[in-house]
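Run log, item B.
One chain of 426 residues. Sequence copied directly from the ordering sheet:
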Amino acid sequence: MGKLIGRFIIIGAVVAVAAFVVISLFMTQPEPQRANAAPRPVAVFVEEAELGSVSLTVQSQGEARPRTQINLVPQVAGRITYVNPDFIEGGFFEAGETLIQIEDADYRLAVTRASAQVAQAQQALAREQAESELAAREWEELGEGEASALTLREPQLAEARAQLAAAEAALQSARLDLQRTRISAPFAGRVRTKNADLGQYVSPGTNLGQVFSTDTVMVRLPLTDHDLNLLGIPVAYNAAEDEQGGVPVTLSATIAGQHLEWSGRITRTDSAIDPQTRVLYAIAEVDDPYGAAAEGGSPLAIGLFLNAEIEGRSLDGAHIIPRNALRGENSVYVVEEGGTLSVRSVEIIDSNPERVIVSSGVRGGDLVVISPIRGASDGMRVQTYAEDGEMLAAFSATYDDSPDATEAAENGEDSASGEDAVASAG
């Protein structure tokens, strides 16, 4: 019984000591500091909105196509006896140069036969003229009254003249067929495809190959209604009515790792809007793509896919902001004096990966935020930094604006430094 009482006494002593320790720790712990309820200013980077004159541009894309492209087809039948060495895929040729020659022996014989028929018709006409004159004299000497047309052999004379005209037409036709045995193009150009060769028999209408002119290359560029507004051109545009001779356009492409550019002009627009895409195609033309236009390093090859930058109208007094200042579709964050944030809606005129041109919502000289902000709202307190990291004091809120912050400072707590704020904004 004594041992049991002793164990209870020991246990009670241990519990009492533990309770004393817990109470002592609770009584001596420091009072928790009250948290600063005021939000700390957010560090942001800004850039000044500019006010100035800008030239609008429109970006588009298209494929280089020849302005003139035809299929070579013969007008006469025969066997091919000559093929120009340049009549191959990619070959160059001059205007009027013989590309293919068809055997012409039969056509030369036809010219000879037609010439003989002309000579016979001429002889018949001369004979008939003589007989007509003789008949007229005889009637004057022996006849009475007015002679009939048949007496004067006028129908026979008309028939002889008609026979001569028919013979001359047959001769001209034979000569044309002889000329058509030599096949050429009416322009200087290049061969795109070749479908016939030496010794092949061809008939009228056979496709011998496809050639195109190298004087001008055209590019069809799709334009939206917004693009037409930026360019300031009508839907039915024709460069012949433009004093400037067309809208300047710069075409570019990357060939063999090299960026190349060509200068051209918009000469006209399509006659109708595309019903599928609802865009209007503008026609850009580049003159002498294998000559003067190739001085930049490479000719403008047919089939090349091109990026186009079209020069639009000029704007005076435009408001320009960096592209990364635009939030969403049409929102911009502007820092007011004193370090408060203003969320504004803007009306966009034009934009590209570098800048945005707006007509309202931002004025020249406003500081627009270009760094990310979470949960931005009107009146948010910010600390403003230029791109070089310098803090703009007039447009920055301080960390000790509230009594809680002042109390924290008196207790020896340091607020975040400007460097830490800049790091957080980055």
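Observations after the first pass:
- DSSP finds six helices and 22 strands in the chain.
- Residues 261 and 296 are 7 Å apart (CA to CA).
Flagged for discussion on Thursday.
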